[in-house]
């Protein structure tokens, strides 16, 4: 009886699923409870998705903001994919009601800040993918509700600083991926709340010293990736990780390693030191469990100075991978093939060993919190938000690291406005009616990394305002009154990585505007009135990776200005009035460009050679909401993950036949629709029958059909298997 009742309930549920309407641009698989709305023009989460949907794939839409309670109508979701959806903000409570969700992919969006309640309600979530956003800062408590999370992917964001306890609440997290950020400051308690962590990826960052104090909190971690960081020296007992077995310090800048560097990591088995600047190594006596050391790519000097290390390798039975770079008689010889007597000294002076970095001074003693403000000694935060203050208060505790002064009518920031705050990392001055930043305003803020000045009345800046804040990496000047880029400002900011000047009134970029911004990686200029970019305007920013120019007044692609940007991977030109696109307009950045936004421009004509040089590196191309009737040949765009052609009035005649055939071969939903002729209007380019009268149509179809038949015939017949099929369109986390 119980079984029959269960079957009845299942049948009723499936019936309800089948009866539910499927949103117009989506495909619903009721049997597997999957809904796919790929690469569409959705600007809001559909509210008529079947309630019993388990897997929802919304990749390639344009949501911008995920509003509070956006998924309350689909409480049974287990998998949600929101990649490439142009999401900029997650409102507090955006995912509330998704208590069954185990997988959430928000990769390749434009999220800049994680708020405390942004991820509220996801208490079953196991994998959270935030790769490829522009997250600059994580508020404490952002992950506090994710008690089931095992994998957190924050690769390729804009993180510079990790405060203490930032990952609090992640009690079962096993893999934390922080690669390809710009981290160079880690709080000593940054990883203190991760008791189950087994793997930590910190490679491709800007760490200049091994963050031993922060890593010492990871008793259970077995693998640590620190490669591709500018670390020059590993000091004595620098690493105290009781369970560590695999340590990767490859492609760093190591010149020396102390003999007891790994003495407090007794389980260490594999040590990867490839591609460093090591000429010699001492016997690593403290690392008694080592079985392999990789030294390939180091300029090893196989003289008598290396003999103690060589003898230790034999005595400890450690396998070494590496070869001599000098002297000439031994060049190319592997370490394992050498004999001690061959390693001779001939009036060679030992290279001086780099000295260990100076110890950091301990935190200064705390002082009383200013009246009307709140100071948190546990998190080193101070806040006077929205207190109607006319002057910037003083006497904050000297160990304050985040200071929130938003929504106070200060009007000006005077010289020496923040005395004694040498440890301050993040300063929030949004909506403070600020018109002037006086010279010396930030003097003494030697640890400052983030400065938020959005929604003020600034129209100019002087370089002297930033005197004494050399570590500043993120400068946010969105929504001010600038009519030009504040030229000369950046000479005192050698570590500036990200510059926000969106939604100002800038009319052009001229040569010299960005002088001094040599390390700039991300430049945000959306929502200005830029009509012209001088050919040399971007020349100082040779490390630029992202250039966002959407919503300006450009009438042509600024090709000349793109020369000399060898690392540019993302270019946004959306919502500029560019009507025609000529030959080779992206050729200067063709070798590096991966993401190209050309949507909503009113584009009427694209030259057949406009995309010359572009090819397999392009991962996403946005061309939706334009007016052209054809596009260039893109058959060599073999790496495409996103191609958006919605709301483009394609003329489906024989000239479009190559595009029709190419789209049919793509495993992507492009949204391409015929705008003409009349008999094809509104039909998908993939499905239009107007191409059947074109010369060569039958030959092409026959070839495709025969190929498919041959392919099918070459496979042995199989019975249809029962059971679950893998979900289509859901990306797995890459290793």
UniProtKB/TrEMBL annotation:
Q: Where is the LRRCT domain?
A: 298-346, 649-695
Q: Where in the cell is it found?
A: Secreted, Extracellular space, Extracellular matrix
Signal peptide (from-to): 1-18
Q: What is this protein called?
A: Chondroadherin-like protein
Q: SMART domains attached here?
A: LRR_BAC, LRR_TYP, LRRCT, LRRNT
* Gene that this sequence comes from: Chadl
Main location per the UniProt record:
secreted
The residues covered by the LRRNT domain are 21-55, 368-402
Please give the InterPro entries that the UniProt record associates with this protein: Cys-rich_flank_reg_C, Leu-rich_rpt, Leu-rich_rpt_typical-subtyp, LRR_dom_sf, LRR_TM_domain-containing, LRRNT
Q: Which UniProt keywords apply?
A: Disulfide bond, Extracellular matrix, Glycoprotein, Leucine-rich repeat, Repeat, Secreted, Signal
Q: Which Pfam families match?
A: LRR_8, LRRCT
Q: How does it assemble?
A: Associates with collagen and binds to collagen fibrils.
Note whether Chaperone occurs among the keywords. no
């Amino acid at each position: 009886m119980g079984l029959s009742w269960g079957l009845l309930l299942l049948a009723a549920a499936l019936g309800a699923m089948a009866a539910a309407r499927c949103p117009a641009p989506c495909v619903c698989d009721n049997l597997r409870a999957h809904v796919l709305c790929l690469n569409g023009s959705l600007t809001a989460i559909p509210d008529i998705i079947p309630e019993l949907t388990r897997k929802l794939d919304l990749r390639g839409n344009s949501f911008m903001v995920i509003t509070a309670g956006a998924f309350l109508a689909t409480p049974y979701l287990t998998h949600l994919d929101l990649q490439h959806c142009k999401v900029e903000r997650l409102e507090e409570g955006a995912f509330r009601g998704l208590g069954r969700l185990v997988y959430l992919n928000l990769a390749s969006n434009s999220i800049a800040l994680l708020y405390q309640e942004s991820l509220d309600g996801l208490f079953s979530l196991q994998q959270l993918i935030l790769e490829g956003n522009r997250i600059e800062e994580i508020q404490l408590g952002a992950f506090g509700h994710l008690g089931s999370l095992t994998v957190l992917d924050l690769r390729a964001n804009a993180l510079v600083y990790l405060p203490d306890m930032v990952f609090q609440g992640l009690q079962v997290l096993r893999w934390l991926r922080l690669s390809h950020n710009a981290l160079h400051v880690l709080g000593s308690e940054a990883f203190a709340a991760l008791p189950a962590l087994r793997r930590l990826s910190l490679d491709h960052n800007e760490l200049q010293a091994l963050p031993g104090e922060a890593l010492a909190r990871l008793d259970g971690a077995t693998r640590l990736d620190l490669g591709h960081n500018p670390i020059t020296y590993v000091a004595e007992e620098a690493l105290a990780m009781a369970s560590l077995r695999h340590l990767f310090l490859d492609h760093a800048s190591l010149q020396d390693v102390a003999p007891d560097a790994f003495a407090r990591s007794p389980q260490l088995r594999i040590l990867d030191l490839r591609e460093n600047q090591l000429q010699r190594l001492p016997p690593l006596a403290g690392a008694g469990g080592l079985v392999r050391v990789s030294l390939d790519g180091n300029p090893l000097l196989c003289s008598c100075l290396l003999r103690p290390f060589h003898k230790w390798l034999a005595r400890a039975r450690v396998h070494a991978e590496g070869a001599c770079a000098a002297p000439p008689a031994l060049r190319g010889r592997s370490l394992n093939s050498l004999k001690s007597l061959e390693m001779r000294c001939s009036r060679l002076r030992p290279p001086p060993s780099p000295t260990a970095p100076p110890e950091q001074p301990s935190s200064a003693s705390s002082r009383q919190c200013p009246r009307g403000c709140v100071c948190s000694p546990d998190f080193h935060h101070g806040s006077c938000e929205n207190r109607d203050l006319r002057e910037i208060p003083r006497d904050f505790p000297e160990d304050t690291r985040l200071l929130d002064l938003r929504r106070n009518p200060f009007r000006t920031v005077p010289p020496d406005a923040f005395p004694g705050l040498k440890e301050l990392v993040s300063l929030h001055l949004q909506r403070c009616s600020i018109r002037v930043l006086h010279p010396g305003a930030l003097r003494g803020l030697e640890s400052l990394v983030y400065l938020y000045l959005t929604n003020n009345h600034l129209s100019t800046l002087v370089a002297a305002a930033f005197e004494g804040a050399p570590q500043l990496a993120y400068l946010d000047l969105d929504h001010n009154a600038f009519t030009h880029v504040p030229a000369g400002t950046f000479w005192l900011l050698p570590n500036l990585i990200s510059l926000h000047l969106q939604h100002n009134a800038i009319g052009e970029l001229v040569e010299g505007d960005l002088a001094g911004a040599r390390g700039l990686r991300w430049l945000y200029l959306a929502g200005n009135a830029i009509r012209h970019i001088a050919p040399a305007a971007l020349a100082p920013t040779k490390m630029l990776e992202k250039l966002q120019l959407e919503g300006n007044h450009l009438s042509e692609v600024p090709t000349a200005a793109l020369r000399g940007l060898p690392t540019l991977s993302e270019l946004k030109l959306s919502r500029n009035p560019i009507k025609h696109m000529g030959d080779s307009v992206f050729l200067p950045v063709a070798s590096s460009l991966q993401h190209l936004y050309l949507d909503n421009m009113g584009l009427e004509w694209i030259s057949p050679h406009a995309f010359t040089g572009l090819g397999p590196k392009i991962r996403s191309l946005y061309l939706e909401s334009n007016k052209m009737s054809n596009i260039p040949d893109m058959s060599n765009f073999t790496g495409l993950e996103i191609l958006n052609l919605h709301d483009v009035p394609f003329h489906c005649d024989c000239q479009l036949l190559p595009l029709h055939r190419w789209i049919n071969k793509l495993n992507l939903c492009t949204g391409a629709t015929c705008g003409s002729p009349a008999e094809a209007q509104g039909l998908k380019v993939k499905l239009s029958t107007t191409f059947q009268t074109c010369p060569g149509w039958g030959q092409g179809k026959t070839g495709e059909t025969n190929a498919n038949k041959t392919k099918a015939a070459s496979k042995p017949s199989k019975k249809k298997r029962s059971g679950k099929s893998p979900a289509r369109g859901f990306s797995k986390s890459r290793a």
